[in-house]
Structures
1.
Amino acid sequence: MQGRNFTRTALTCCVALLQAKALVKGGVATCPADPSADTEPPEIILGDVGVGDRPAPGECTAVRTYDVIEVRDNCPGDVTWSCVPPSGSSFPIGDTTVTCTATDVAGNTGSASLRVWVQDLNPVPPVFDVVPNDVSVSTDQGQCGAVVNFTVPTATDDCPGVQVSCSPESGSTFSVGTTTVTCTATDAGGSTASAEFDVNVRDLWAPNITLGDVMRETATSPGLCEGIVVYDVSAIDNCPGDVTLSCVPANGSLVPVGDNRVDCTATDVAGLAQSGTGFSVTVRDHENPVFDPVPDDVTVTNDPGQCGAAVDYVANAADNCPGVQVVCSQESGTTFSVGTTTVTCNATDASGNKASSESFVVPRPFSTIISNVP
Ligand SMILES: [Ca+2]
Ligand SMILES: [Ca+2]
Ligand SMILES: [Ca+2]
Ligand SMILES: [Ca+2]
């Protein structure tokens, strides 16, 4: 059998008796031979919303009607249906969704919906109950911002249904600096009011200083009592922007022999400074002293009536560092016996580096002074 089994305009009741045995859907009867095996939900055809009355001044609702044109199913039998809110009831100002649900004898459920709009003809905007206070927080650890939660302000309206939303939302991540949050209260009729407050996020995190390769020990540069300090230090900050890194003594500079402490300070764009853990660089002197001039051999005559002579000689040493000392096997100015005396001088710098030199002192009877250059 073909043919639409049930049609009714502006249904107002809740049970539709479907007298025919099948519903034509696309020209094909879809009710199975065993109706209990039916899986096809019923359909609800909704019509237009009536104009209805208008809310009176001070009123927040108006009566509205709408049409349920048809409730149909592919199988015969009672289809129960209902709509919420029902047609003819009082609807609040604003937008209301009407949902109609129908259930066939096999328990399949279908639904349809429509919107009922009641205009607010006497719009009175909502009013915020409190003006939100500004919020001030510090940045989250390692972040250039902060997740900020705030209490969404409430608002009061002449009609129910006012809603408040804020942008950015509570729980958003706010960047460093000041962000204005705008909260908007919207009543059911679409009238709005707004309120603003500031979220101030301050950067309280100074840069982190990272120590890379450091030459903890280095030698003096040739001829100098200083060595070049070499290290690798970097700094990162939670916020973008240049980080000023300053170390004393500076990388690549000359520092004196001994232990030298290096201290670094990193400063971010917010002016927050972090002093890194200092480290030490030891400069060692490995350069030997040298005799300057190299001691000459000395030949003198004996002192009159003596079998020897008091001999002065020069034995000086130079070093890249101060504090070199010269010690000889027989001091200058002492009496040397006739014959050849080998004088050995040792020069020792402050770091223990040594140099040695030999010369000859030869007192000879009745001879003139002869300088013997080696
Ligand atoms: Ca059905
Ligand atoms: Ca209002
Ligand atoms: Ca910072
Ligand atoms: Ca030296």
2.
Amino acid sequence: MTDLDKTYDVAVIGGGLAGVSAARDLRDRGHSVVLLEGSDRLGGRIFARPFKGLPDVSVDFGGTWVNTSMQPLIRNEISRYGIALKEDSDPGCSAFHTGGVLRSVPIPAREIPDLQRALTRLRDASLRFTPGHAVTSVPVRDLDISVDDFFAPLDLPAATRDLLDAMVVVYGGWNPGALSVFSFLSQVAALGNEPDAFYGALTERFVGGLHVLLEAMVADSGVEVLFRHRAVAVERGTTGLTVRADNGVALDARECIVAVPSNVIRHIDFMPSLSLGKVKMVAENHMSRAIKCAIRVRNLAPRPFAMGSRGFHMICSGKELGDGTEIVYGFSSEYHMDFDPRDRERVQDWVREYFPSAEVVEVDFHDFGADPLLDGTYRIDRPGEAFEFLTVMNEPEDRIVFAGTDVDDSVWRTWMEGALSSSRKAVGVVTENLHRHTA
Ligand SMILES: Cc1cc2nc3c(=O)[nH]c(=O)nc-3n(C[C@H](O)[C@H](O)[C@H](O)COP(=O)(O)OP(=O)(O)OC[C@H]3O[C@@H](n4cnc5c(N)ncnc54)[C@H](O)[C@@H]3O)c2cc1C
């Protein structure tokens, strides 16, 4: 039961991984915390639910893979709650569509030196980031250029470029010419400066889906969660602030963590207004509109893997069902304007571009872009925007701290590890503010 007359130490807006972990950590430190979540579930861009027509088969439609040896914050959470993980098995069959040719290897042998040149360029640029330090604390602003501009000096041949572009679209969710290479490079740094680890390093998943972790965090801390409370206004005064929800509820708090996707920050009315820099940075959406389809297939060797320039830029195994069918994930982007991920026939055509004998039994999909509380997938910036965005969003703002993977200035930004990293930082700032304001 919410005590409307009470002044909470902290109001947290947004019940994704960042918001939940921040609320939990503040409770652990003895603070009173209320968490407002606009929808009726926790997790935001983490979303596990049964596959269409298969009530016992849970599928992760959003965040899925982790690497516990490279991601210390995820590793801590997993061991704290004793959560079981499953390691992906190697693919049972592979197909690549690069340079206009369907092939069983990523590129023709004659292009191997070109691919090596491209990987070396990625690696060398990634060495300029320093994992463990904010990406904006090192002089890397000149790397905030488009993916096209980054590779242009190499004059890469078609198949190599198709392979690299497929990696970019899967991760970036849009056309490589329109995306900054900055986040890709920081991630190569996170992956030990190994660009080829980009798609082979995150191979562990949560048994039973990722919501297991979020539920454990809330149960453990006793954080008060208010579902269907969409924050619409944050009014700051001299001694505290009031958060107003769309259902008329108003809650008083001393400090506030805003842990919502960057695309929806502008729908909250901040009074007084946020700094001009922040207002400018959240005025329009970032570029990424990724699509992740869950596809039940048959007539396909187990655990397929595909990558290339066709409609799906990557296909990988989801879950073997043991009845001759398997759920696979197909990754694409809304920039293929004419594609409807719910259209079984169309999805089948796209799968057959890599695996001609495959039969698609059913397709399922969660439209993160159509969800007004998320409005997109993971933040990828326009060229020239990434460094500025991270700098500005992490600047102090009286009584308000932003959190969430979109604003995380570690090398793990965009991933779940980034959500945890941003939350840890926000908790540190808020704890300091609470001490300062009560001193
Ligand atoms: C398709 C897809 C695949 C992914 N795959 C991976 C992967 O394999 N591995 C990995 O590490 N990461 C992956 N990610 C990224 C990962 O899911 C995110 O990094 C992480 O979930 C972000 O957490 P967050 O707390 O920052 O934000 P979110 O999860 O977006 O949480 C924000 C919350 O705020 C709520 N909200 C919004 N506005 C308001 C408001 N006004 N008032 C109250 N509540 C509000 C939303 O409903 C939401 O619950 C994937 C993401 C997607 C979309």
